[in-house]
Amino acid sequence: MKLFYGEIEGPKVTINDEEQQHIVKVLRMRTGEDIHVTDGKGNLASGKLFIEGKKAGIEVAEIQEHLPDFNPKLHIAIAPTKNIDRIEFFVEKAVEMGISEISIIITEKTERKNINIDKIRKQSIAASKQSLRFHFPVINEVLRLPDFLKKINPEHTFVAHCNENLERIELKNIPQLEQLTFLIGPEGDFSEKEIQYLSGHNVKAVSLGNQRLRTETAGVFVSAWNYYRLK
Question: Following DSSP, what letter does each residue of 175-222 receive, concatenated?
Fold first, then answer.
């Protein structure tokens, strides 16, 4: 399936401008080829490609609406790493494994404060198309940890930290909830003050095993764990 991103409004389907350039200049596709377009909101248009000059469009044969999304929903809030490539790696793999939402959070030990969210969103769309997803994950704006906590339901939220002196539950003991939020800390982990702050907001601590995982590895690990549970 050749899947591209665009807008689907009733019978009208418009391929995204950057996607059109990719079709014409990079892929060098030809009029008449089969093509599929999703809006990333659960809708899918299928038909034949037509090219007029530098523009590409679709002669729609079928539109499928409200295609099912993954369940349970997984939201990971992750602190950015000093090397942004590692977060971008996490985003790509997490999207391929069905994550529904990603937030970038700034913590006390976060070294990198400037994040190009537009670039992250583009990578998310690319990974969604690669893995044939018709529901693109939400990529939120950067928030500081206290501001992020105002937006979540603590009953569905867990924090993965490395402090072995504090009580943590194992992943296998997390109940089968329809929606989960996981917080992943930066290099050097969450501070003890932040861990106590999270506990005071009824966010439960979870262990990801005996090994100390890097930030992006922890994010991928949780994504893979949830992928195994998808319905």
Answer: ---SEEEEEE--TT---HHHHHHHHHTTPEEEE--SSPPPHHHHHHHH
b/e per residue 21-33 (b: at least 16 CB within 10 A): ebbbeeeebeeee
Rounded to whole angstroms, the Cα distance separating 152 from 169 reads: 20
Structure tokens at 155: 């009953």
Rounded to 5 degrees, φ, ψ at 143 are -135, 150
The DSSP symbol for 154 reads: G
- Could you give the CA distance from residue 99 to residue 181 in angstroms, rounded to a whole number? 10
3-state secondary structure of 80: coil
pLDDT digits (tens, 9 = 90+) for 107-158: 999 999 899 999 999 999 999 999 999 999 999 999 999 999 999 999 999 9
- The model's pTM is 0.94
**Burial class (CB within 10 angstroms; exposed 0-12, middle 13-18, buried 19+) of 126:** middle
pLDDT band at residue 90 using 50, 70 and 90 as cut-offs: very high
How far apart (Å, rounded) are the C-alpha atoms in residues 109 and 111? 6
Residue of 152, 175, 167 whose CA lies nearest to 77: 152
Q: Contact at 8 Å (CB) between 102 and 139? A: yes
User: 50, exposed or middle or buried, with CB in 10 Å at 0-12, 13-18, 19+?
Assistant: middle
